[in-house]
Structure formats: C-alpha cells, structure tokens
Amino acid sequence: MTQGKLLEGSKVNHGSTAETTPPEPPSYEEATADASPCYTGAYTDDGELLTQFNWDDRNIRRVFARKVYSILMIQLLVTLAIVALCVFCEPVKAFVHANPGWYWASYAVFLVTYLTICCCSAPRRKFPWNIILLALFTLSFSYMTGMLSSFYNTKSVLLCLGITVLVCLSVTLLSFFTKIDLTSCHGLLAVLSVTVFICGLMLAFVLPLGLVPWLHALYGVLGAILFTMFLAFDLQMVMGNRRYTISPEEYIFATLNIYVDIIYIFSFLLQLFGSQD
Fold first, then answer.
1. What is the rounded CA–CA span in Å between residue 58 and residue 53?
2. pLDDT value at residue 142
3. Every domain of the chain and the residues it spans
4. Which of 34, 118, 258, 268 is surrounded by the fewest CB atoms within 10 Å?
C-alpha cells in the first residue's frame, strides 16, 4: 500500500513537471548588466589604446570626454598666455630672440615627455606622474610656439589664431554630427603624413638656396590639411560609437593628441598666412 502511494505521488510530480513550461532565457540587457559595457574583450592587452565601444553605458564616455576637454582648455589657456607674452611684451620678445638655447632646451623636454607619454602606458595612467608629464609637455611646447610666433607681426598672429579657432569649431561640429567614420581613414592619414614629411625634407634643403619658392606655401597647406584631418580623427576617437575608440583610461593620451593637432594647425597656418617682422 505504501509503495502504491509512492508510485501515485511520483506520477503526479512527473505530470506537473511535464506540464510546467521552461523559463525564458534572459535578454541581452539582463545578461550583460553586471559586465563592463565599454570593453568587449577584443583587446586583452593592457597596453592597447583602442577598445570597442558599447553605447549601453553612456556615462563613462561622457565623463571621459568632459575630463579630456577640461584638461585641453587648461592647456590652450596656458599656451595662449605664453604666446601673448612672446608677441605683445617687448622685453620677453627680446629675451626669446637673444637666447635661442632655451628653444632647443624646450624642444628636448618636449621630445622626451612626448615619447614617454606615447610609448609608456604606466606613467600616463598613474597619478600624479601623468599630470606632471603633461604639464612639462605643455610648458615646453607652449614656449616653442611662443618663440615661433614672436618672429611674426601681431596682425598675422591674431589672424592665424582666429582661423585656427574657426577651423577647430568646424571640425568639432563635423565630427559630432557626421555619419562618416573618420577613424577608418588611417591609411589616408598615413599616406598624407609621408607626403608632408618628404615635402619638409625637400624644403629644408631647397629653402636656403632660394629655389622653388612656392614649396613653402605647399608645405603649409599640406600640413594644415593633415592635422585638421588628425583633429577630426582624434575627436571621433574620444566620442566613441565608431569603428575605433580610445579607452576611457587614456584621457591623458587623448588630450595630448588633440592639443598637438590644434597647435600644429596654428603653426602651419602661421607659416602659410603670417608675415614676418
């Protein structure tokens, strides 16, 4: 009798199990809720700068962009102040012209800090070394830009400064609202970089001899176009939602790239439109 009751109970339980529908599988949002949406695992190396981006987590990208633009504004203000001193203050201009050794010292600091930030992932991610390196880089590059600007008259510097501001604003709006993925144009940027490099080498040998006077203007045009394209490329890398995006941990590297693009645009425009004293 007890065995019969057990058999009947097992039949009832088996029947209820068979009639119960299996639970539905979790959705993609539920399955990835606990994972970090900015890293898909496509790049596992710690030194890799690029990462695939997922727009499910917009807060990380928004904070990253805000941090980049805040540091960039400070850099540009420092550079603008040093350029203004070298252009408008006559004692500072005379000191800069009388001591060219400071330019080469600034160039050495610029080169060392630039290579350190670009090639070494540990210093550019570790506070406060990343801020110290970026500050040294900004001061040295600002002094070099100020010395270059001091050889041009005031109207030329102001004109090129205004053109640079308009170009940067236009490129920023284009990068934000265009559907064209400029991060996939790295091949074109590489070809144009080689062209500008060869043109610069030719200019270094031809300019002292007074041959091909239009080569200087061509070098300025190509350089301005190249770094305008680099600016659009780097801005879309910061924004995300493109084929290649930069990791939110690399805010120092991202700021460095955009800052260099803007300063080089100004320098090439100064060579193209500026008139020397």
1. 10
2. 92
3. 55-273
4. 34
Q: Could you tell me which of 222, 225, 234, 221 has the C-alpha nearest to residue 260?
A: 234
Could you tell me the two tokens for 22? Answer: 């299996």
**Max Cα distance, the chain (Å):** 117
Which residue type sits at 68?
V
Q: How far, in Å, CA of 260 to CA of 262, rounded? A: 6
Residue in the block written with tokens 């800069």: 96
Tokens representing residue 119 in the block: 């090639």
Which residues of the chain are under the pLDDT cut of 50?
Answer: 1-3, 5-19, 28, 31-56
β-bridge mates for residue 51, sequence order? 245
C-alpha neighbours within 13 Å on the C-beta side of residue 157: 20
* Nearest residue to 259 (alpha-carbon basis) of 119, 110, 128: 110
Q: How far is CA 72 from CA 77, 188, 252, in A?
A: 9, 26, 10
- 66-71's contacts with Cβ under 8 Å and 24+ in sequence apart are 67/251, 68/238, 68/251, 68/254, 68/255, 68/258, 71/134, 71/251, 71/252, 71/255
Nearest to 143 by CA among 194, 178, 99, 175: 99
Q: Give per-residue pLDDT as tens, 30-41.
A: 544 444 333 333
pLDDT digits 0-9 by tens, 43-86? 344 444 444 444 446 677 778 888 888 999 999 999 999 999 98
Contacts 24+ apart (CB under 8 A), 85-91: 85/146, 86/146, 86/147, 86/149, 86/150, 87/146, 87/149, 87/150, 87/152, 87/154, 87/157, 88/154
